[in-house]
Amino acid sequence: MSSNIFFHAGTVTCEERTKLLKQTGATIWFTGLSGSGKSTIAMALEQVLIQRGHLAYTLDGDNVRLGLNAGPKILAETRGYSEEVSKRFGLGFAAADREENVRRIGEVAKLFADAGLFALTSFISPYRKDRDAARKAHEQNKTGAIPFIEVYVNTPIATCQTRDPKGLYKQARAAVEAGKGMGFTGVDDPYEPPANPELTFDATSQATEQGVALVLKYLEEKGLLK
Amino acid sequence: MSSNIFFHAGTVTCEERTKLLKQTGATIWFTGLSGSGKSTIAMALEQVLIQRGHLAYTLDGDNVRLGLNAGPKILAETRGYSEEVSKRFGLGFAAADREENVRRIGEVAKLFADAGLFALTSFISPYRKDRDAARKAHEQNKTGAIPFIEVYVNTPIATCQTRDPKGLYKQARAAVEAGKGMGFTGVDDPYEPPANPELTFDATSQATEQGVALVLKYLEEKGLLK
Questions:
Q1: Less CB within 10 Å around the terminal CB: N or C of chain A?
Q2: Do B55 and A108 touch (CB under 8 A)?
Q3: Which chain A positions have a beta carbon within 8 Å of B107's beta carbon?
Q4: Greater pLDDT, A143 or A69
Q5: CB neighbours (10 Å) of residue A217?
Q6: If you measure CA to CA, which chain A residue comes closest to B1?
Q7: Is A79–B103 a contact, with Cβ atoms under 8 angstroms apart?
Q8: What is the pTM of this model?
Q9: Is there a contact between B88 and A88 if contact means CB atoms under 8 Å apart?
């Protein structure tokens, strides 16, 4: 078999990946309040892209918060990290921890996009500065700039609080009333909307299908689908 | 356009990805001394897989150590992290830092393999315990076990030290002679060879082509190439 093996010096080129995948990798960054519907659109978009022969992968709390960006408790339990090391590397919800959470997600999304995929990220990512740093990391990627598409899911907080799919707003309000607080975005921690998002999904008047169509149209217009 | 958009509840299934990519995602973990030739084989394998219509991506020092697993200095410079936060999250070469380095790489490889890719990792990853933890994370993946293929690149240290492509062995020996040491694998820090690697590449008698063929044969035999 080894007689049929040929390769050149260096890594696979961006062109080789584009030819194989019929697309140019990019990060599609969904941001919005808890319960705004980010994951619903991201998951629908991922499915529709794959149905059409394109490759996408969603990074969200389900696959990131239990693994790469786990908290101290999980690190101690699954890795046997000491208390000191678990506290050092494990991520909580303090500002520095949230910043590092978003930094790692941005770096992983960048790797996926560099591999040629559409990396969909679905995290509140409440601070503008942190999202802008992820964007900058994509723009300054060593092997060439990678498209970064910020999608603001602008569901009003009243709607998010009514939906409250995981009961988190209720929990956060109770914590505030008890004088403790838990730094929950929209309750006792700020959400800073994007100043110039590539796309805004108006969740009060648009269905999931329309959100998916909005992103697909953008990808086509920018020539990212071949 | 939105009239043509259909999706089901939940995430894209493993079967949908396999159908699109004609492969089952897996992590191929290259381990061995500095200068053993891990990256040479990984890069050649990545190219050959892509030539044959399969999707692979290599995680290595070039794309991980400057981004996701950057050291304190880079975090301070590129992110404006305070000295305290840079030291907390930035990775150096102490045992806990190496463990966290390998943990994050294992978690990211797992995500790539979950997305359907062959995730190739090329890191010394000197400690058996850390590699075994990465394997365990793959076996216990929440949405189903992910194949983990450990490839031991067993180039003898004398050969690695003669090659010394980055001058690191020379630097490490000088540090030891000066009574400082730098915890360099094979000089003043141990390398623990895998006890039961899926594959061993005998770098003293085999060419890169043969290493690539060895892995391809394994992927075929295990039914990971469709």
A1: C
A2: no
A3: 67-68
A4: A69
A5: 13
A6: A213
A7: yes
A8: 0.96
A9: yes
Name residue, tokens 């910020």: A150
Q: What is B23-220's CATH number, 2.60.120.260, 3.40.50.300, 2.60.40.10, 3.10.20.30?
A: 3.40.50.300
Cα separation, A188 vs A182, in Å, equals 7
Chain A partners of B6 at a C-beta cutoff of 8 Å?
Answer: 48, 51
Question: Choosing from B86, B122, B125, B205, which is the catalytic residue?
Answer: B122
The CATH class for the domain spanning A22-160+192-219 reads alpha beta
Q: Token pair of A86, please?
A: 């678990």
The chain B residue lying nearest A13, using CA atoms, is B47
Tell me whether residues A44 and B89 touch, CB distance under 8 A.
Answer: no
CA distance from start to end of chain B = 33
Q: Could you report the per-residue pLDDT of B94-121, keeping only the tens digit for each?
A: 889 999 999 999 999 999 999 999 999 9
**Element (DSSP H or E) covering residue B200:** strand B199-201
Q: Which residues pair with A189 in a beta bridge?
A: A185
Q: Is B125 a catalytic residue?
A: no
Could you tell me the two tokens for B151? 């490839």
Torsions phi, psi of B196, nearest 5? -135, 65
CA distance A34 to chain B (A): 18
How confident is the model at residue B2, as a pLDDT?
A: 55
- Does the structure show a pLDDT above 70 at A2? no
Contact B48 A6 (CB under 8 A): yes
Q: Taking CB atoms and an 8 Å limit, are B5 and A53 in contact across chains? A: no
Percent helix, strand and coil across chain A, each to the nearest 5? 45, 15, 40
Q: What is the ipTM of this complex?
A: 0.95
User: Collapsing DSSP states into helix, strand and coil, what is residue A96?
Assistant: helix
pLDDT above 90: residue A223: yes
B37 in the Ramachandran plot: left (φ > 0), alpha (ψ -120 to 50) or beta?
left
What the block records as the tokens of A40 is: 């619903």
Q: What angle do CA B218, B199, A3 make, to 5 degrees?
A: 55
Determine which of B19, B48, B50 to mutate to test the interface with A (most A C-beta atoms within 10 Å). Answer: B50
Contact B184, B172 (CB under 8 A): yes
Note whether A119 and A27 are within 8 A (CB): yes
Torsion sign over Cα A87, A89, A95, A101? negative
> From the CA of A178, how many Å to the nearest CA of chain B?
30
Domain boundaries, chain A: 22-160+192-219
- Percentage of chain B modeled with pLDDT above 90: 85
CB A23 within 8 A of CB A54: yes
